[in-house]
Amino acid sequence: MQTLKDFLEIIYFVSGPIIAFLAFKALGQIKEAKRQVAETRESRIISSKREAYKIAADKCDYFASKIIPIINNLDKAFKENEFTFFENSIVEMTKDGYSVKPYFKDKDEIDRVFALPCLELFNRLESFSLFFTSGVAEDNIGYLTIGHTYCNTVRKYLPMIIILSDNKHFANILILYKTWNSRIEKEKLEKEKKRIDDELVKNKDFKIKSIGTE
Predict the structure, then answer these.
(1) Which of 49, 123, 172, 177 has a CA that sits 20 to 30 A from residue 31's CA?
(2) What CA–CA distance (Å, rounded) separates 195 from 32?
(3) What is the pLDDT of residue 87?
(4) Which of 1-5, 118-122, 177-181, 201-205 shows the lowest per-residue confidence on average (mean pLDDT)?
């Protein structure tokens, strides 16, 4: 009986280091597995970013080669017809998006405005915008490359875009316009703030002391 007891004690003392060793090995395997998961995730993120940058570059090239010529043709028709609709219609932001109060000088202008090939531009802009609003294309690349041109165009034709959208179509145009235009306005405010701060530094505060205060 004593021999059995001694034997069990030996097994107990020997098993302690073995269990510790096995636990150490398991911990090492867990750490290695976590490292591999982290590396895989990082690699996937880098690959996704690279693809998003590539798609953004491709779409900006598409904008320059395919959309800008349409914008130029439409702008030419815009100037030749001397429309009042685009300048005098009132666009307002609502909780559901945008609304417009259209202004037409007369029935002839209504006919001429709706005769413009606007849908050719708007359909292409909608397809272009989808890549950025969905996050497939890198937003900042698009903004830095053609953001101002995009917003200037959409702003000019916004009354017609809203009318033709009927709160169902061209949603991506309106989302991207709101996103990029807000960024443009923020940059303008930051520049104005810097200008004001610089002016405040230049204009020191001079005070006239009352007689007898010193």
Answers:
(1) 49
(2) 54
(3) 83
(4) 1-5
For residue 156, pLDDT over 80 is answered with yes
Q: What is the DSSP code (8-state) at residue 28?
A: H
Structure tokens at 134: 């969905």
- Residue 51, Cβ neighbours under 10 Å: how many? 13
Local structure of 97: helix, strand or coil: strand
Evaluate if pTM is beyond 0.90.
no
What's the token pair of residue 20? 């510790």
Element (DSSP H or E) covering residue 84: none
The alpha-helical segments, DSSP class H, found in the chain are: 2-62, 68-81, 85-88, 107-114, 118-133, 139-165, 171-202
Q: What's the whole-number mean pLDDT along residues 97-105? A: 81
Q: How many CA atoms lie within 13 A of 118 on its CB side?
A: 20
Terminal CA-CA length for the chain = 106
Mean pLDDT, residues 171-177: 93
